[in-house]
Structure prediction request, 481 residues.
Amino acid sequence: MLKKILFFVLIIGIAIAAVVIFNTIRFSKAIANKPSRELPNLPDSAISHMQQAIQYKTIGMGDGLPVDTAQYEAFWHFIEKNYPRVHQTLTHQTFNGLSRLYKWEGKHPDQKPYVLMAHYDVVPVEAATEKLWTVPPFAGLFKNDTIYGRGAADDKVSLISILEAAEKLLSQHFQPERTIYFSFGNDEETIGHGAQAIAKYLADNQIHPEVVLDEGGEITEENFRELKRPVALIAVAEKGYMSFNLSVEQHGGHSSTPAPETAIDILSKALVHLREKQMPYQFLPVIKEMLNRVGPGLPFVQRMAIANPWLFEKKLVSEFEKDKSSNALFHTTIVPTMIQTGVKDNVIPSMAKAVVNTRILPGTSIEEVEAFMNQQINDSRVKITRYSPPDKVGPAASYESTAYRKVESATYQIMKDVVPTPFLSVGATDSKYFQSNADAVIKFTPTIDAKGFHGIDERIGLSDLKRMVFFYQIILEEAGK
Ligand SMILES: [Zn+2]
Prediction:
């Protein structure tokens, strides 16, 4: 009897191994490659324009705090002066006071237009970190073939690259096949009213773009090292953005006679519980597609795991969960970002508050996130309310859409040996407001592993700037063909 059972187990083991190996071999095909082009030289003026753009302190303060509008207006004067052909040929309208929509009439104005997006507001530099920068963050200095400064990567480089490409093409008397709009937002980092107003204007006037292209995924050499080829993460969707207030009210009083639990204690425990566990993982189709495109070039063990999700899915996901960036592709994330309480060192406060920011996977509802938070905190003394209005995140763009194909084609041309793949943007962008009115919205910035987003030493290499200008040139030249 025992022999029979062992024999049976052995047969099952061999069958599983055979399926695993068969799937792995079938999956191990060569990844497509297409010829790239040599990047045209960058005029010196492009570099100095990028440096100057950084010098305008177009800082979004958030929470309705006033911004220095003179800096924003001066930025537009600088643009008008330095891109004279764009200024003369294209028409523009202002939205939300400081956002602009440029229109470049195409040869076939009856066809659906393209919208190229960027934003020129930047996040503040924390005073305590200013000294840690290699150069002052608003000096726009150039060092070792790199331009440093707040906004260098996020997202003044996109705005400048679009205008450089347009100015160059205009000098060659180029006119696009389709009408092209440039949508340049002034408050992406805070409330996105500029982009919302522009999106509304287009929808109200029955202007339905075929392609909307905004910042988003990047080219990465660091994240798939074993592949030995750069991967272009062309985001076809983004995570939702939602913040919540947590508040606790308790009797405060003199700190010499504390009660066993104060408002601060209760809030602290709630935050700890909230962070103890993540919401369950989801293996979204877009992430499966990414692994299907990149996987065939990975080492055998990784290839085997990706080719056999029926057996290895949990193991695969747990590997991705080890890194905070890839973890965010599988989970709705929940993290406290602000805490407010206390007025004096010898007074126990009667109120403690925190703001918790969540980034929600497509397909997960805000109610599900709220339910998870309530379940984790499990304390009725902690009141959870919505801090920001719910986000509207549209469906993912199809990999077959014109928008995806155009961006993919341009990416092959600007980057040797690149492997383009659909991707999920974990950050929020202004382009979400265009989703309901456009055929497809793509979020992609062809910089390579750019550094310093919202942090210290934000910077952009000259090679990135060069690649980006050429990228937009190709998008403009091939629009509507
Ligand atoms: Zn940005």
Observations:
- The two ends are 72 Å apart (CA to CA).
- The pocket of zinc ion is lined by residues 119, 154-155, 188, 215 (CB under 6 Å).
- The CA atoms of residues 95 and 369 lie 34 Å apart.
